[in-house]
Every structure is written in C-alpha cells, then in structure tokens.
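Contributing: when you submit paired examples, paste them exactly as shown. First protein:
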Amino acid sequence: MKLLIKSAVKIFIIFSTALYTSISLAQNKLAIVIDDVGYHLKEDAAILAMPREISVAIIPAAPHARARNQEAKSQGRDILIHMPMQPVSAVKIEDGGLHLGMSSAQVNDRVNTAKNIVNYAIGMNNHMGSAATADPQLMTYLMTALQEKHLFFLDSRTIGKSVAGKIAKEQGVRSLDRHIFLDDSNELADVQHQFQAAIQYARKHGTAIAIGHPRPNTIAVLQAGINNLPEDIQLVGMGNLWRNEKVIPPKPFILLFTEMPAPTSMEPFEPVGLLRGIPK
C-alpha cells in the first residue's frame, strides 16, 4: 500500500512539474509590428514570408497598400493602419494624415478613408506623430472615431509626453504602448541588440511590443531571431494582446475609481529621436 502511495505521489510531482514548466515557458509574450509596409515590393515580401504572428502596419497612401492589405489578410496576419500624424519637426507626412487644428469631422473623414483602403485592419498606430499624439484635442477626435469603428490603438511613443493612450482608455478604446524600437539605428549590431532587449523586456514584464521597419538589416535579424526564439518567449500577434487588454468604458460623469496601467503601458520606454518621414 505504501509503495502504491509513493508511486502515486511521484507521478503527481512529475506531472505537476511538467505542467508548471509548460505554462511558464509560454507566459512571456513578444509582439512585433512592422511599420511602413506598402512601399517596397522586395522588403514587404520578406516580411510577409515570416510567421503570421508578425503584425504589419500599412500606410494608406503607400502605392501597394491595398495589395499588402489583401495579402496579409489571406495569411491570417494582424493588420494595423499606420496613420501619418504631424511631427514636431517640419518633416512632410503623407496625404491623408492627421494635423493639429483639424475638426472632428475632418479627423473622422481621414480615418474612414484610411479604413476603406486598409479595410482588414484591426487597429491603428501612429506614423511619426510626435506633435499629434501630444495634442489632447486631436487625440480625443481620433479616439472617438476609432471607438465608433471598434479599432484598437498602438501608441508608437515617438514622444514621451504622448497623451494618446490615456485618452484612448477614456474613450473606451483598447490601447497599448510600444516598448522597444528595433531599428531606430539601422546598424546590424544595434538591431541585434534591440531584438535581445525586446526578449529581456518580455521576460521582465511578461509582454514586450517591438516596432521595426522593412529594411534589410531588420529583416536579417528577425529571420535569425525568430528561428532561434528562446522557449520561454511566445511570438504573438497584436490582436492577442489587445483582446486581453482591460478597457475603461467611456463615462459621461466623474470617474469614481482609478485604474492601474496595464503591464504593457508601464515605463521605461526606450528613448528614441525624431523618426524619419516618408520612407525612401
């Protein structure tokens, strides 16, 4: 009898250990979003050849935006509208972007136009936008439009004083923040370093959101990195994170309670300079 009990206990311990290990290995999530999709055939094709968990952010004004939208959808890949927004600098943005001083109707019209082009998008993130995302009025208009269309928002955090995420939650829009830029420097060693930084961030916080661009060095690092991803890191699409994001419903009256920020919205953010304008 004692032998049977000991055997049962041993089996239970082995099973419990295996179960705990399998759960723990899957708990660290890494989401990668590739911005500026729709301009370059070769680089876009390389991105779309990667696992479908790599999300793509398509600029509506890009010449191949509609085609990339269809291709990504056919793969079951998460798609974002990469919306051009006014930066602090005088860098020109693409047609159809958002500028300071726009009315609610103008913002809504631009969002509608973008969604008609990138019609399979489940969310939006900002292309540049260091001035736009820091403007409460413009962000209120934008989040109202996104809420009506049931679109999520990813703040690329091109400026530290962005109010986009805060206003998104106030308007009932699911919103998350970028944690790591993979290729603000295009040097291969720097991109490799940032990819490892994303893995370490995921291990520390449980989730990491990294943004990159369809460039040769970024593509090379992602191809190698994804093929050798550590067992404790799970590659996920943005939809996986947004669906689990708690949202504060919009309230017409005074908020009685405060909400702690989601783990993916906490600092520190990787410092980043002013980003480039229209891709060359």
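Second protein:
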Amino acid sequence: MREVRIEGVKIQPSPHKKYNFDYEQGDMKVVFRRGQWRSWNDAIKWLQENGERDNELTPGETIALVEDLRSLAESKAPFTTDPMEAFKLAHKNRVQNNKRFAQEHQQVMMMARGQKV
C-alpha cells in the first residue's frame, strides 16, 4: 500500500500494525527523549516525519500525540520540556475538546487502517 499522510503523519497503511487509540505517559517520554524541542511545533514536526517508524510508538499513538500537541500549539499553551507536564497539559486540553476529538480521531484511525470514512 502507498504511504498516506494522516494529521500530517507519514503512515504506511497495514492491517498488521497496532493502531492504539491513545498514548500513555511513557509515549510522551519517548517523544521528549528523541529531541531537544523548543516548541510544540518542533515535536509535531518530528512526529510527522519519524513517529510512525519509531520502534517505541505505534501509528495510532503518533497520530494522537500530533493531534494533542497541535491542539496545545493552537491554544497557545506555554511550552514545557517536561514530558509529564506536557502529558498533563495535553489531556487537560483534550478534555475541553473531548467530543470533537473522539469523533475526529475515530475518523483518522479508520483512514489509517485503509477503511472508508
């Protein structure tokens, strides 16, 4: 299958990959170990280009991370270099947008699996 971009993330669609709906604190730590980010957009750019190929992140986790970090950037949340603080901020921000997030994320995950939306 051809590479597609979902939420800007490069994905090689495959029914054999794990597509977790969400990420955990450890996944946010992985992102912050991969670079010296100075902004949410720095981390987003890395995730979009490299997240799916990272051996510690699934495509679904990568997409969810991009969605949440983008939401933080759009809401002008102050950037932090602490992955646990970033995780808390991301989930707090998500709760505020939870219904929209759940619907959009479900559609994105269906696209990642190669299913029609």
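If you have annotations for the second protein, write them as plain sentences, like these:
The chain has a mean pLDDT of 86.
Strands lie at 4-6, 9-11.
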